[in-house]
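W.,

You were right to be curious about this one. When I first looked at the sequence I had no strong expectations either way, so I just let the prediction run and decided to look at it fresh. Below is the sequence, 285 residues in total, followed by the output.
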Amino acid sequence: MSSLSTQLGILQTSNSELATTVSELTAAVIAQNSELKASNDLIAADNQAIKSQITGLPDVVFEQVDSVLPARIDERMELHLYLDVTNGNDSNPGTASAPFKSLKALIDSAPMGSVIIIFGPLGQRIDVNERIQISNKKVVCRLIGATLNLNAIIEVYGSLLRFSYPLIAVNLSVPKGISHYSGDIRLNCTKLVPATGSEALFLQVYTGGDVSGPGSHHSNILFTGEVDGANATADSPFYVFAPTYYMSSMIVTTHNITLGANTNLFHPTYQTLQVGTKGVYLVGS
């Protein structure tokens, strides 16, 4: 009986110790769960903060881009460039204080799609000694009292070339001066002087592809001035407008045109229709 009582006491003590241990473990688990919950709450708060930042970030970025991009586009797409054939340098950036020397370098410096406004000193003699290709650009020359010496051809393809002020003279020493397709050209000059062997000022060219559709290689051209015929002959006449031999069209506007001996406005390949009594012609070949 005594032995049984002793064993029962030991069992009660063990149960008491076990209950204490379970209680302690339970408390520890509860405490750890509380810490984990607090940690999870912090992580959730951080995630919410990050989410808020990410959600608002595109708007901030777009605002920053919107504030900067138009200015950058304007800077690159409408360029005010300066030309000084006497004091310029083709390694210059084309600013008023550091102008270009040649028209070719100035035009070549601008990316496709840009609008180029050309400024510079009065009375410049602009020598074109290398081929200039103007492709998908708008070039507006605002030089006053300039002379243009075409010793090489200017090619105007899908582009605009406009001289805002009359040129004193255009001196042409090559067979053709300005080739074009899908061009918009305004050339005001006091006098056009072709050299011996020069054939035409404007040449409408064929560049490949289907030209059977209307307007495929259509150009609009305005020309004014006196055409000197001193170097033209009956056997080698000079034409202001000449085509290559394929289907093409133009709208030509003329003003104050004077044609010298053996000079003609249009090559006979062209068929022309004058609009009323004005110097406006629908031209096709």
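Here's what jumped out at me. DSSP finds two helices and 18 strands in the chain. And, maybe more interesting for your project: The chain has two domains: 1-71, 83-284.

Coffee later to discuss?

I.
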